[in-house]
Amino acid sequence: MPVKSPNKRTRRICYFCGWDGHIRQNCLNYRLLTCRQLDTQQTKYLRSPRTEWHRKIHIENCKVALTSVKGLNSSDWYFDSRCSRHMTGNADFFSDLSECKARSIVFGDGEKEKIIGKGTTNRSGLPFLLDVRLVQGLVANLISITQLYDQGYQDAEVTLCNLSKVEEVGLWHKRLRHLSGSTISKVTKVDAIIGLPLLSFSSLESCSECPAGKQVKSVHKPVNISSTSHILELLHIDLMGPMQTESLGRKRYAVVCVEDFSHYTWIKFILDKSETFKTCQTLFTQLQREKNTGIGRIRTDHGREFENQHFAEFCDNEGIFHEFSAPLTPQQNGVVERRNRTLEEMDRVMIHAKHLPIQF
């Protein structure tokens, strides 16, 4: 009988991968496959849905989706298309109340509430409803459209009269860019705007934004009493120009001076604004020597041709008080402002009457 050599080891072959040198228990590929199968089974087990069983006779479903910009009134009722039964949380609404087989109710978010009982709401000022559930802790009063259909109610067309509220009138007033009520009424009568309802804009209350955006300056009342007692006490001065068309002497500006007591007017044409001071200085000196009296006051606007160092030094040396009209208020120097308009109208009429070109 042959004897095996002690140095020779038995050759091992893996029955999983077919390689020699190891067995299946120690095979790396076999271990990887086993781990993957275990992970898959654990994942399936963890993701398996959980099933809960309830007795259907004791559950009534209701999905609530109610939003409101105002606080809920405890006496208001709301139509709900997903509510299975009429329900309320106020026991004072019921004219009769009995025990209900269903003991709890499940809302759309999964919360449960206890059903105390059911009955009929037949009180004055409340809708007449049958088979209404009294739910503990329910804030809103819900009318089930599904239950109304089950009880035989159907949709019907109803003719309603158009009612206009002050809030709706004010809303259209703002949509139409704050038009006045009389203007909107005229537009409504002729049906000039598509979609504008028939509203009574006579009930339009005063809009707080309209006075702030539409206010205008009040008219200055004319003063017929002269504020001066002798000539050269006050001179009104203004600069006209630049004119759109040059004169034959290439003049585009005119210095207008009006004496307040007599309203006598002097007009001096100049080429540029820079000549204003020289022209006024010459005119003032001439008037003081001619009338043998000094000038008391002069009134101008805040134009740079009048409000400058040369004018200030001249008035100080001659003892003339220089008055300025308030900014953006030409009415304070209205004597010469109105004379400017009179002069322009006179020139325009004479040119038109003699059929002369505008250069004249």
Strand content: 15-25%
In the CATH hierarchy, what is the class of the largest domain?
Alpha Beta
Instruction: Count every helix, treating DSSP H or I runs of 4 or more residues as helices.
Output: 8
Give the biggest sheet: 6 strands, mixed
CATH topology of the largest domain: Nucleotidyltransferase, domain 5
| Helix percent band | 25-40%
Please give the number of β-strands.
13
Q: What class do helices, strands and sheet pairing give?
A: alpha/beta
Low-confidence stretches are 1-5, 55-59
Name the CATH homologous superfamily of the largest domain: Ribonuclease H-like superfamily/Ribonuclease H
Number of separate structural domains: 4
Shape field: elongated
What distance lies between the first and last C-alpha atoms, to the nearest angstrom? 153 Å
Radius of gyration: 50 Å
What is the average of the pLDDT values? 80
Order of SSEs: HEEEEEEEEHHHHEEEHEHEH
Assign the CATH architecture of the largest domain.
Answer: 2-Layer Sandwich
Question: Mind explaining what this structure looks like?
Answer:
The chain folds into 4 domains: 11-41, no CATH class; 56-65 and 73-150, no CATH class; 166-210, no CATH class; 234-353, Nucleotidyltransferase, domain 5 (2-Layer Sandwich). It is built from 8 helices and 13 strands. It has helices at residues 28-46, 145-150, 166-175, 181-189, 209-214, 276-291, 309-318, 334-353; strands spanning 59-62, 77-80, 87-88, 96-98, 104-107, 112-121, 129-135, 141-144, 234-240, 253-259, 265-270, 297-300, 321-324. The N and C termini lie far apart (153 Å). The strands form 3 sheets. Strands 1, 3, 4, 5, 6 and 7 form a 6-stranded mixed β-sheet that branches. A 5-stranded mixed β-sheet has the order 11-10-9-12-13, with helices on both faces. 14% of the residues are buried. With 360 residues, the protein is of the alpha/beta class. Helix 7 links the parallel strand 12 (297-300) and strand 13 (321-324). One of its GO terms (biological process) is DNA integration.
